[in-house]
Amino acid sequence: MAEAGGAGCDHYRRSCLLQAPCCGKFYVCRLCHDSKEDHQMDRFKVKQVQCAKCRRIQQAQQSCEDCSSVFGEYYCGICHLFDKDKKQYHCEKCGICRIGPKEDFFHCSKCNLCLALSLQGKHKCIENVSRQDCPICLEDIHTSRVGAHVLPCGHLLHRTCYEDMLKEGYRCPLCMHSALDMSRYWRQLDDEVAQTPMPTEYQNMMVEVNSNTFLTVPPSSLPPLLATLCPPRSRSRE
């Protein structure tokens, strides 16, 4: 039997243990259970909890019916989530609890995920994108305790995975579009190009540019490009 010690575990702050409906064992949380067992606990089917203070086994509820210990400042009777108050709320459309405050988020029905209000009408929607695994760590995003970061292309990464990715590059690992707002960089290039005279022989020359970022950008929004034409490669081996 796992010990709670009245302080919860590495994942949650709570004063009770959950009885796993699958195997009947007691664990502080489903994540502790899943790391020890060869199966997963269904959080929605939890019926019984054990008080970490008096050890009374009872129906899942916010406080102990015997010693009145509060199992968690926040309690969801659907997810059976006990934790300290983080302004959590249960989203019926997501099907799980999210960290709020609720008024700072909205549920995007197409992406099937709660997002910050600052992204409402300002992000690219991808059908059920939250049900896709993170392309960096290949772990679940929808039910993860780690927040999701929405890339300009619409794909999702764990926030921590996004931060790690930026240490190596700045492109979405799925579609290779820029993962950052490059407008400031383009303006810098504009200034440099404006100060660089175009050689006469190249003034009317047109070239094709392949870019993952510019595929969906209107031609009028493309930054001016200055390039050097390389001489033809010699077939000589000398």
From TrEMBL:
CDD domains to which the protein is assigned, alphabetical: RING-H2_Pirh2-like
Keyword Zinc-finger in annotation: yes
Annotated CHY-type domain residues: 2-69
Biological processes per GO annotation: protein ubiquitination; ubiquitin-dependent protein catabolic process
Stretches assigned to the CTCHY-type domain: 71-133
Domain of life: Eukaryota
A cellular-component GO term for this protein: nucleus
SMART domains: RING
Gene3D superfamilies membership: Zinc/RING finger domain, C3HC4 (zinc finger)
Domain RING-type: 134-175
Gene Ontology molecular function terms on file: ubiquitin protein ligase activity; zinc ion binding
Keywords: Metal-binding, Zinc, Zinc-finger
Keyword Zinc: yes
Pfam family, one: zf-CHY
Protein name per its UniProtKB record: Uncharacterized protein
Provenance organism: Gopherus agassizii
